[in-house]
Amino acid sequence: MDGSAIKRALSMMNERGSGEGAGYVAYGAYPEYEDCYALHVFFDNIHETKRTLEAMLEQWGHIVHDERIRTYDQPNLRTVHIPWRYFFKPYAGLMAHSTSPEDDIVSQIVMKINTAHTGALIYSSGKNVGVFKAAGWPEEVADFYRIEDYEGYIWLAHNRYPTNTPGWWGGAHPFNLLDWSVVHNGEITSYGTNRRYIESYGYICTMFTDTEVVAYLMDHLVRKQNLDADLAVRALAPPFWDDIDRMPEKEQDLNRALRLAYGPAMMNGPFAIVVANHEMMVGFTDRIKLRPLVVGEHGDRLYISSEEAAIRAMDPNVERISMPPAGKPIIGRVAR
Amino acid sequence: MTIGSLPLRYKISIDRERCMECERCIDNCSYGVFRREGDRILVDSRKCTACHRCIAMCPRDAITLEECPCDYRSHPLWTRQAREAIYNQANSGKIILSGMGNAQDYPVIFDRLVLDACQVTNPSIDPLREPMEVRTYIGKKPSRIEVMRKENGDVELATTVAPNLQAETPIMIGHMSYGAISLNAQLSMARAVAETGTFMGTGEGGLHSRLYPYQEHMIVQVASGRFGVDIDYLERGSAIEIKIGQGAKPGIGGHLPGEKVCMDVSCTRMIPLGSDAISPAPHHDIYSIEDLAQLVRSLKEATEWKKPVFVKIAAVHNAAAIAAGIARSSADAIVIDGFRGGTGAAPRVFRDHVGIPIEAAVASVDAKLRSQGIRNEVSLIASGGIRESADVAKAIALGADAVYIGTAALVAMGCRVCGSCYRNLCPWGIATQEERLVQRLDPEVASHQVANLIKAWTLELAELMGAAGINSIESLRGNRDRLRGYMLDESLMSVLDVKQVGA
Amino acid sequence: MGKNVTIDAKGMHYTPLNRMIRQAVAEGSEEIVLENVLGQRFIANGLRGEATITVHGVPGGDLCMFMSGPTCVVHGNADHAPGNTMNDGKVVIHGSAGDAVAHSMRGGTVFVRDNIGYRGGIHMKQYDEKRPILVVGKNAQSFLGEYMAGGLLIVLGMDGSTYTGRGVGSGIHGGEIIIRGDVDESLLGVGATKLPLTDDDRMRIAPVIREFAEAFGLDPEPLINAEYTRIIPASSRPFAGKYTWE
């Protein structure tokens, strides 16, 4: 499906935003380069920092193709960055002692570039996936990139009401690292704990916002800790102790162990989150349901949104609408 | 007598119009301040320790106490304490021992940290109506979870999780030994922790048989003196704590004055009646970090790996690296005791000058363990100078899993922090083994007071968490973003990893 | 399992080894023989009962720590701190042992046929009938019986050597240390004082020496009748004079 439907859906929820940030992510955006990591970069200018970045990429791998991301000027959208994309193949042999050397190389490059504050920001780094975001209203951002020109089999989109870093393109959602993308409504009150936890495993939070930590937590729990997505979500939004105490013994053991092992990854505060990777999309809310989340189903399509209206804007004939209980993950897997 | 007598520390006055000569003050003062001569009650203020027992027991509010009624010539450097210590040592040539915690006027870091609350961007949570989880598990956590997926789709845990203590509040009571405090004081606290679902330490004086009913809530201590340590004792405890050091006196051993070694204490410690119970400065089977690991494993081996083993160290300069070493042993929890920690008896020079504040120690230990990716595998307990629920919240936000309180629990039983614990004359029946004084402390009453304190602090902690939009203690732990430093210098804020107010 | 059990400890970790020992005791074994012991720590750690454990080889540190009842016979040298915080029972070492032998021992007996290292018998305790005993056949190194709060420590000097370590009984406030020959005044630790061994003392220690001699197949009489120095606390509060109160 192309990006026109999700643009329509997101526009339904303009009341939730402030016109200072919106974004889209499409899985399946680059079938012609599906073996390459698609790095989307915001350059402040292309004279100073582009060469530094490219030198680093050449050091760790091979740039198969690169180009300026096509954009179309919008009257109310001030272009403060130049978006660029690289299709990159890392040399796996350069990262010894790793079970996922290519991912580790790319992740490390992202952390290095984004912490160096040199006027380059890598905001999208997965294979066959692309994030498109900027500071503006959803329609403006969509038109800026002509989002309807992109095809995807999973789409996430977000409309921002910033408090912390208004106007900063990097601060708009979705946040992405490698295969993981996140959109988030709310504020994570446990961010200080989550960030310190995830940073002890080599991730570095660079976006001045709480949401990026979710992408890193998912990457850590699923890729490094080998948890299935549903267990990863349970680690992030676990059942209450008194609920665990009432479970059958084996279930208690599992849930208690998850909370003990991943307590610092647990997220607190109001949130409704959708995370995606190339094979699934997972939506969940905080444990006491402080943010809305509506789920729609139609055949093999799954929709997750803050409002039903947005789902119906995409698919007027949606078959089932439901509101999942707090903390329960809604998982949609890509049909093969 | 070239020095002569020193000015009074305290002056007791009796309002003769209010006094009805009931003699309760005479009965209650174990230091002998009051006596009756004819129809008057006379006062010897020099014997007073400011324990307030007479004031608390006077039915007519006839007694008042004044501190330092006679001034020295004021001098910012040559304080009263400095001068009096010199007079004392000029006369005696000895090391000065003192009771209670650090009495030096260092700034309290807790008082320069402020907590956060939610406004608009996220909602505060009302702990009266919505879930608020303060339950804390103390012990080794798995570094990762392995599961088995069964054919029917069920998931089962494949990882073996080491035994953890399940505390219903992150507030525990630290180790104060039988000997240092009375059996009634220990009993009161034991009932209180059983009632509130938390734990207390036995200290190094063994576990008296009257505490057996509460043993599931007791952490037994193995200190360098090994007093009262045998296999029964180790098996009775819910956990075992190796005491390496104490915040009030880092680098030196315990010192229970012979005055407090009565028959019962002599029995539980297996030392001669009336002898000083001196714990060696080091454990003589631990001269390096690998020896510590050996003792940890020896204790686990003796108890068949069923008990969590804690290691307690005094907060010293290198606490972070030491803690990282401890975390690599088989230890389940690390206790850091800050330099404000209390004591029954410590050399004054140690009490006031050795060690570092708990706030900085916890922050640096937490950071060090995180930098090595092992923070969550071991529990961190902060102690030494926790005075109120806000201190608990701040300690946890700086990185502790739980806290030990000590002096606060004694204060809940009536202690007035007079600091004369070493004299065995505690008129509140707490830091004494004198039967007539011990009888004054009724465990029935005192246990309620201690339980009340723990409950009240836990309620306040829940309120503070709720205001910060956090409904589980895990999300407060190490969440330094929810703290700000007020009038702290930049270097200390970088150690604490907190921003200044307004930032 | 029968009354006698033999366990081949070759290459085994101490945890399964101890588990097997515990199980054997639980199943009523009276004699447990461990073959090929090499460096396994904590053998018979915290063990209760009456069994006899015979160790062939060199056990690791903290042998019989917290043990309460059994007998452990070692054919070989022992490492660091055998009998550490032992409560009851008997350890017989046909060889030498390392530092801190019988550390904080509370009861029972440790016999070492040959030599022991530094700080033997440190902080041994005593109460009523619980009186730990450490007997060393040959000699011991410095700080013997440091902090001693009770118990009996005997150094037999069977090899004709004299005690030359320093700080004997440093901080001793209970119990007694008996050493073959004379101990120079300069070797006494803080708070220790020496006395000649009286006939009454000799009568008192004779049964202990006989038991020791029997354990190793020695003639007890020359040992009983030798010259000894007895070292005891000068006071039960050796450090009381060091402190004053605030």
From TrEMBL, chain B:
Q: What are the UniProt keywords, alphabetically?
A: Amino-acid biosynthesis, Flavoprotein, FMN, Glutamate biosynthesis, NADP, Oxidoreductase
Protein name according to UniProt: Archaeal glutamate synthase [NADPH]
Q: What catalytic activity does the UniProt entry give for this protein?
A: 2 L-glutamate + NADP(+) = L-glutamine + 2-oxoglutarate + NADPH + H(+)
The EC number on file is: 1.4.1.13
Residue ranges occupied by any 4Fe-4S ferredoxin-type domain in the UniProt entry: 10-38, 39-68
Highest taxon, organism lineage: Archaea
What's the top EC group for this one?
A: oxidoreductase
Q: Which organism is it from?
A: Methanoculleus frigidifontis
Presence of keyword Acyltransferase: no
Q: What family is this?
A: Belongs to the glutamate synthase family.
PROSITE patterns, per the entry: 4FE4S_FER_1 (PS00198), 4FE4S_FER_2 (PS51379)
**InterPro entries xref list:** 4Fe4S_Fe-S-bd, 4Fe4S_Fe_S_CS, Aldolase_TIM, GltB, GltB_archl_type, Glu_synthdom
- Necessary cofactors: FMN
Automatic annotation (TrEMBL), chain C:
- InterPro entries from the entry? Archaeal_gltB, Glu_synth_asu_C, Glu_synth_asu_C_sf, Glu_synth_lsu_3
Q: What is the lineage of its organism?
A: Archaea, Methanobacteriati, Methanobacteriota, Stenosarchaea group, Methanomicrobia
Listed Gene3D superfamilies = Glutamate synthase, alpha subunit, C-terminal domain
Check the UniProt entry and state the signal peptide residues, or none.
none
Q: Where is the Glutamate synthase alpha subunit C-terminal domain?
A: 13-185
What protein does this entry describe? Answer: Glutamate synthase alpha subunit C-terminal domain-containing protein
Its domain of life? Archaea
Task: Write down the SUPFAM superfamilies for this protein, in alphabetical order.
Answer: Alpha subunit of glutamate synthase, C-terminal domain (SSF69336)
